[in-house]
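hey can u check if this looks right to u? its 342 residues, i copy pasted from the old doc so theres a chance i mangled smth
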Amino acid sequence: MDPLDKLSREKLIFYLTMPLSSIIIFSNLFIIIGIACNRQLHNTPNYFFLSLLVADLCTGIALPFIPGMTLDRQLDFKHCLVIYIFPNFLFLSFLFNLVMVHYERYLCIVSPLHHSQFWVHRCFPLALMTVWVPPLLYASLPAFGWNNWVEPNAYKSSDSNETFLRSTASRNASKEDEVCSYKQVFPRAFIYLEVCGLVLPAMLSIAAMMGRVLWIARKQLRNICKLHRAVDRLQQQQPSDHEQQLNLRYAKCVAAVSLTFLVCWVPYIIFQLMSVTALQTGVNLSSSALYIIMSCTGIGSMAVIPLILGLANKQYTEPISRVMLKLRNRWRGGQNNRDIAL
């Protein structure tokens, strides 16, 4: 790739990811402080959500580096592994934590009276390890030999002095010739296994659990509406507006879930389809501005999901909101005192 073209791609990644990364980092810190300051939230479900927020925070920190994984760099083998393995581990841990949070809440809705008896609550340390250790082990497989890295060939000569001089020159040249690329770190089978064996099942499981929860909510809504109709008939009253309000609330819930799916999941699905298609056809999309935009928006939109779940809960934001309200009242009080003094 032309150096000027590569520089323009890096600038595009920077301008796209830095605002998203800043929003994700500060919003996660905002919610984490809110959970830490409220002792009523110190329970197992919120510990899982806190783990998700930490993973999302790390993903926000690594977000500017993830789209740049498609660009080639002049790095040696060790540094190349760190640059590619660490962001991949953070993203996989975020995905595993997201599945675990949805699974735990799914159990609470499906079995509200017996959810505390499931292994997720009884073996919390083990459940927490399942969302951090497997992503670390899988992401580290290239470091244990599953990679396509090829060392530069050294010169060979029968003369010892010439061998020494040429080996020194080859070491210096190898530092310039070693090109760090995702194709050398991640084999094609590794990428297919991650997409089809980890990412796609995780997305399908989350979608299935959300669909199941909406179906349960719809079923309970129908039962509640039947009870209201029976009561109205016994009391010989006209149907109340409560049934209409319940239907409206359910419609808003479905609309919110659908909008979240369109905004947060569809860009990432498009990015994954583009990546798999490019891998199958052998087309290099790293120089495509559209691919870089989709990678930044796709991963960034996925990282917004925990923020939507957290900011929608007033218990998480209440402590920080109180602090902000006190600071605003003090600032307004100080301004009023200054106006009175003038």
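Residues 154-176 have pLDDT under 50 and may be disordered.
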